[in-house]
Amino acid sequence: MKKNATDFKVKNQKVIIRCDLNVPIKNGIIEDDTRIKKSLDTIEYLINGNAKVIILSHLGRIKDENDKSLYSLKPIAKRMSELLYKEVKFIPFTKGVEVEDAINNMKPQDVIMLENTRFEDLNGNLESKNDMELSKYWASLGDLFINDAFGTLHRSHASNVGIATFLPSAMGFLVKEEVEKISECLTNSKKPLVVILGGAKVSDKIGVIKNAVEIADKVIITGGMPYTFFKSLGYNVGLSIVDNDSIDFCKEIYKKYRDKIVLPIDLIVAQSISEYSQTRLTNRENIGDKEIGVDIGTATINLYKSIVMTAATIIWNGPCGVFEISKFSNGTRKLVEFLNITSAKILIGGGDTISAINKFEFKNTNAHISTGGGASLEMLEGKELPGLKVISDK
Question: Which of 3.40.50.1260, 3.90.1170.50, 3.40.50.720, 3.30.70.270 would CATH assign to domain 189-380?
């Protein structure tokens, strides 16, 4: 069992906390502060325990110097100050004298936030490749390390795995909750267990599909992935998205688990991915050569409903179609409606899925909405997460 934040005495300690503050920002304005709010519980616990709190996070992907102006954490520090009703002092550097002086001058209950950890990737990907010298440096700034960035637990970076290698470490409250909720769904879930998997490429979810067919009663394959299954079964899929490298996998696993794997029986097809494109309803045997599958059809929606409404546990990752375009969104919207009224325990993960439930007003309070798509997927695959493995054991 891994240590959590309450297992350490934090009074007067310099506590480095890795948060996942990778929120959408446009023109310096935060469009969704959900991840910032999710990080507050552990930070407030540390403040109330008279710790000196040092926050690290990444934001976006940093490819060149121009990205620095787009992905600074300064607006994040400002918003966190508002939410905490307390100054979060922003240090516009990831290392150096300014960082060291700021930390050395901290008093108990002070909070500082360093600049985007991925700025270090401009110097040979030091962050993303878990450079040991950078890890040692960041670790030298604190006495304890708390990892509360569930969304990066599947990555071995300097700011999570690296620091935890050199300091006593623990899970934050968010990571603890995520790990417990997902583990419970996978190992202790009430039956029937239904796993709903959407997305474009089968190859991105091969491990999840392999694990799902072993533990679930039904595995619904939806979104763009069914067309690779259809092609493996000999159907014409027109111009629909197909993951050619996964055709053999689809053919074999469907043959072995066709009693569990649920594929759409009818579809909405279009001439192009556009709001102005003409659409038609068709069954999976009659997709035209120049048509693209964009959503599930009426019969499939009813099939999904019959499965979902009899489930005791539901895991959902990936929408049913191109829901961002309103005329292709009916399947995803209907699924959200069904999940709103089911009494099943629900686990929802993945950025597109969360966007969908926000768009279609998901309201079921009997659900856990995961903050980390990649990390939750790797847990669904049964993989050990590097960022969790390195945390100190109790």
Answer: 3.40.50.1260
Beta sheet of 218-221, edge-to-edge order:
261-262, 218-221, 193-197, 313-317, 345-348, 367-369
Active-site residue flag, 374 = yes
Q: Report pLDDT digits (tens) over 278-294.
A: 999 999 999 999 999 99
Catalytic residue among 86, 95, 201, 305: 201
Catalytic residue (one of 151, 199, 373, 374): 374
CB 138 within 8 A of CB 164: no
Residue 151 falls in the annotated catalytic set: no
Q: Is 201 known to be catalytic?
A: yes
Of 14, 35, 334, 345, which is the active-site residue?
35
Give this prediction's pTM: 0.87
* Long-range pairs, 10-13, Cβ under 8 A, ≥24: 10/46, 10/49, 10/50, 10/51, 10/144, 11/49, 11/50, 11/51, 11/108, 12/50, 12/51, 12/52, 12/108, 13/51, 13/52, 13/142, 13/143, 13/144
Is position 198 annotated as part of the catalytic site? Answer: no
Token pair listed for 249: 């996998």
Q: Compute the average pLDDT of residues 120-138.
A: 96
User: For domain 5-177, which CATH number applies: 1.10.132.80, 3.40.50.1260, 3.30.1300.10, 3.40.960.10?
Assistant: 3.40.50.1260
